[in-house]
Amino acid sequence: MKLRVAGIAVLAVLAWLLPYQLDSYLIHVANVVIIFAILAIGLGLVMGIAGQINLAQIALFGVASYATAILTTRAGFGFWTAAALAMLIVAAIGLLIGTPALRMQSHYLGIVTLGLALALTNWVTNAHIAGGAEGITGIPAPALPGIDLRNDYFFYYLELIVFGLALAFGLFVVRTPLGRKMRAMRDDSLAAGAVGVEVPQLRMTAFFLASIYGGVAGVLYAGLIRYVAPETFSIANMFLLLAMVIIGGRQSLVGCVVGAIALSVLREVLVDYPTYAQVAYGAVVVLTVVFAPTGLAGLPTRARGLLQRWGWLRRDTGTPPKLGDFRPYDTVERPAEQVILRIDDVSMHFRGLKALQEVTMEITAGEIRGIVGPNGSGKTTLFNVVSGLYRPTAGRVWLGERDMTAARPHTLARAGVARTFQNLRLFPLLTVRENLLVALDQTSVLGNWRYALWQPGVWRHDRALRRQADELLDRFGLTAFADAAPGELPYGTQRRVEIARAMARRPRLLLLDEPAAGLNGEEVRQLSEIVRSIRSTGVTVVLIEHNMGLVMSLCERVTVFAGGRVIADGTPAEVARAPQVVEAYLGDSAMSEDVPVATPTEAKR
Ligand code: ADP
Ligand code: MG
After folding, report:
1. 381 CB less than 6 Å from ligand 1?
2. Domains: count for the chain
3. How far is CA 250 from the centre of its chain?
4. Does residue 549's CB lie within 6 angstroms of at least one atom of ligand 1?
5. Are residues 385 and 475 both part of a single domain?
6. Which of 101, 98, 113 is nearest to 55 (CA)?
7. Same domain as 595, residue 453
8. 177-196 pLDDT, tens digit each
9. Which residues share a beta bridge with 361?
């Protein structure tokens, strides 16, 4: 920590002294580099942190530059007024460019944003008001009392301060709840929705942030060059910007800055060889993607890994941390018998395939309900419908008195439904602690005004979340793994993390999809203890499970699925005897009691 502060201080002093070493040409170059660095931070936030492909970043930059140019030269506004208006315009356009992200992702989003960017370049090249291919000259220099900003040296200091603030703000976002939710959304948007992250709004927020950075860069550019022309906002420059972010390492904003500086210097070196320049950038990108896929920012970790592999650096040889014991919740009185979840005649068809057919069932508050059935019988589909991942073809889903049929996953999560996934969906690039922190945060997107206006409030909220996370880690015996990446952990431990993450929502209804799959006998025993304790704290649990021993010992009622229909419903003993159940399971080994976990008497509490 001290080292980092010292490093930042040294860099700041060096940056402050840099102009003394530069002639009038190089200081101009430095000023352009800083503008590109600000742009790269914006692109790093939307693409690297939030995972939204945005090929319109250069267009946002252009919008702000052109807006400043037009408003000053054509409409007679002063520079700063024009700049403020330009920021409003670019923010609006940023939100516009972000709307396709609500419906599409990955390369589709790339194509759409690229199309919007091309449309914009096309417009400025042809529009009379934008000066056509010649662009707009004669933009007035920004005025500050006592400082002549036409002087590149003074402009450098203005830019340096803005850059410092822009980087600090970006890092602030990444390290606090907003950035964590963005990273969670990037890693797994389905799971993010299931833990209450408002995915659509968050995507828009990411584009909004990128447009603010594009806007700041554009305004600075207009003030620095005092001339705008279409070629600055060309696709070639968009590629350069993309290369900066890829080389720097998409997930690290500091990496994006380093990438921006490195490529800008390369561009300066190659300025007399335009034929080779594009090839050189391309080569650098290809080399990065092949040899350092995590970018420059990931190099230290990769280097350490290599040194360890070659035996030049000792591996940590400490004993691997052990999964701690689960500390049971305080028992509360069992809630009054009322229906917490009602599934009313629900069907779910995928084209011709009828995954669920007219399923009707009721779950009573405070029970542990088992759901069993052969593979492909629609159990997971039912969870997906209840947690809002699928909208049912027919029928309704009621949560208490609320009709939740077409609700979004985050709405359901916020209404008290939490779930785990059959094939584990932890956020792989977040630590275990961060996985819990994402779920613990219950603030809505509307609370993000604090990021602009009241940062201490954000810090305080973050500290409160961290305390809750520590408490939760301790309860689930996960403290030793808090800073590990989920992928490094044993399978059983990952399953435990996922339950802890679901419980972080403090749900009323917990859906567990095959939580015992892949666990050993002892782990299954612990799981059964955890589920009992969760129920005793007033949470209703629905459990899909193939481990019949676990189902028999835990559940008061069991619902049996086959071919998308409910074929039996009753106490474990009743359904085990039902002839249609026996028939459905004939030849299916899933019914075998291979891992008995508790004696049947335990089930009757
Ligand atoms: P279970 O969890 O009981 O093993 P599922 O609910 O996962 O079964 O699947 C039920 C049926 O629905 C399967 O035939 C499966 O292939 C199909 N199915 C599930 N999800 C989809 C989907 N998104 N698209 C198409 N078919 C699906
Ligand atoms: Mg399943």
Report:
1. yes
2. 2
3. 13
4. no
5. yes
6. 113
7. yes
8. 999 999 999 999 999 999 99
9. 343
